[in-house]
Write a structure and sequence with these properties.
Largest sheet: none
Mean pLDDT: 86
Helix content: 55-70%
Number of helices: 8
Length: about 140
């Protein structure tokens, strides 16, 4: 999470700048060159993942936003010590991790998992990791 928040993930564009010869296409959507902004905000695969999880959380998610709007939305949603903010921080970390893992599975193991299965897994992990004070709220979410 620290690496994502500080722009230090080794996305394809960074590897290419280092002189590595790599396929520049996004491994998730195959429609654009991969960079951090595309991978976590603009990629259709990631957008659908965000929509599914935010729908589960009954939280508004604007998937047509720019990188700057995404950052502002992330900060506003995670700010504070409310149960909603705590859940958002946990979910944000889990979705980001799931997107990164799926990208790497596709590149290094040449296999893909279904988006809905990954979204369910994220919801399940968050359900398990929820602290006692936020479990009731997490358990009230219904995965559709």
């Amino acid at each position: 999470m620290w690496m994502l928040l500080h722009g230090r993930l080794l996305t394809i564009d960074i590897l290419q700048k280092w002189g590595m010869i790599v396929d520049t296409q996004c491994a998730l959507c195959h429609n654009h060159e991969e960079n951090e902004k595309h991978l976590f905000v603009n990629c259709e695969y990631s957008k659908n993942m965000w929509r599914k999880i935010m729908q589960w959380m009954q939280h508004e998610c604007k998937t047509t936003q720019s990188w700057e709007q995404h950052l502002e939305w992330r900060v506003q949603s995670a700010k504070g010590n409310t149960n909603s903010a705590k859940i958002f921080r946990m979910v944000y970390a889990e979705i980001s991790h799931a997107i990164w893992i799926e990208k790497n599975l596709r590149i290094f193991e040449k296999r893909a998992r279904e988006r809905n299965a990954i979204a369910r897994e994220v919801a399940h992990i968050c359900n398990i990791r929820a602290t006692i004070d936020i479990q009731r709220l997490v358990h009230s979410y219904i995965f559709v």
